[in-house]
Amino acid sequence: MIKIGIIGGAGYTAGELLRLLLWHPEAEIVFVQSSSHNGQAISKVHKDLLGECYLNFTPANFEAVDVIFLCSGHGQSKSFFEKNKLPENLKVIDLSMDFRLENKEHEFVYGLPEMNKEAIAKAKYIANPGCFATAIELALLPLAKHQALNEEVHVTAITGSTGAGQAPTETSHFSWKNNNVSLYKAFEHQHLAEIKESLCKLQNSFKQAVNFIPVRGNFSRGILASVYTQCQWSLIEAMVHYQNYYQDHPFVVISDANTDVKQAVNTNKCILHLEKHGDKLLIVSTIDNLLKGASGQAVQNMNILFGLPEDLGLRLKPVAF
C-alpha cells in the first residue's frame, strides 16, 4: 500500500483527491492537513464524503508516508519547501503552478503523462499541469511531435466555476455567475508559459504565438477548448497521427463526433474531436478541470511513480445528464 499525506486538504482539488484515494486499491491516507480546519472531521468540510470518510484533519507526519500531495494555493508550495525539511525518500506531487516551468534550481518533472511518462516514472517530485494547459497541450502534442506547428495557434476555452478555487470572489459567487459568461486574462493567462514550454520540447522550431482567450462559464466543472491552426494534413492524416500518438495513453480518446463537457465530467478522460476547415485543423478538447485537469491527473502520476497500472482507481463514470 502507498501511504499518503495531503497538504492543504480543504479545497476543491483536495476533496476530489480524497474521493479518488479513498477507493484506490493501493492507497492508504495517513494524514490530511489543513491549517484552517485542524481537528475537524473531513466530512464536515467535504460534505459529499459523509459516510465515506471518517478521518479528521491532522498535522502532517512526513516520516509516516511515501508521497504527499500539495493542494494549497499557488505560491504556497515554494513556501512549504522553505519551511519544511522532508525525508530523502519522500515523493511529492504538487498541484500548484509553482514548479511547472523548468528550472535548474528545483527537481520537479512536469507531470503530463502523455508527454513525460518515462521521466515521471523516475522522478522524485512532480509538478501537476494546469487544467487549461492540460486540455490545450493534449490538443496540440501530436502536431508538435510531427513538426507541424508552423503557424499561430488560436484557442478559446471555457471553464467551470470550480476552476477559480473554493474561496469566493467577485466573479465566482452565484448571483454574478448564474446566467452569465465572461472573458478574462485574454492573451496573458498564466498557463500560457507551460503550454509554450511543452510544445517547444517536442518542436524546437515553434516560435509562433498561442492566442488564448479564456472564458468563465456558468457551470460548475469541465473545460471545452476550441483550438485551431493552419495545417497541411488532410483530416484522415490528422486522425492517423493523433490515434498513433495516443494509442498507449489510456485517458485520451479520439471521437468521430463533436464532443461536449458532460462527456468528460466526472472522468479522467480527455476527449478530442478533429475537423478540417479549408487549410485549418480544428481540435476540440474536453476534460474535467478537477480530474484530468487536477486531482485525477495527480493520481495518474502517483500510479506511474509507484509502478502501478496508469488507470488504477481512475475508471470513473461520466455524468449522463
UniProtKB/TrEMBL annotation:
Pathway: Amino-acid biosynthesis; L-arginine biosynthesis; N(2)-acetyl-L-ornithine from L-glutamate: step 3/4. Gene3D superfamilies: Dihydrodipicolinate Reductase, domain 2, NAD(P)-binding Rossmann-like Domain. One of its GO terms (molecular function) is NADP+ binding. Keywords: Amino-acid biosynthesis, Arginine biosynthesis, Cytoplasm, NADP, Oxidoreductase. Its main location: cytoplasm. It holds the Pfam family Semialdhyde_dhC_1. It is found in: Cytoplasm. SMART domains: Semialdhyde_dh. The active site is at C131. GO terms for cellular component: cytoplasm. Catalyzes the NADPH-dependent reduction of N-acetyl-5-glutamyl phosphate to yield N-acetyl-L-glutamate 5-semialdehyde. This is N-acetyl-gamma-glutamyl-phosphate reductase. It comes from Ancylomarina salipaludis. The gene is argC.
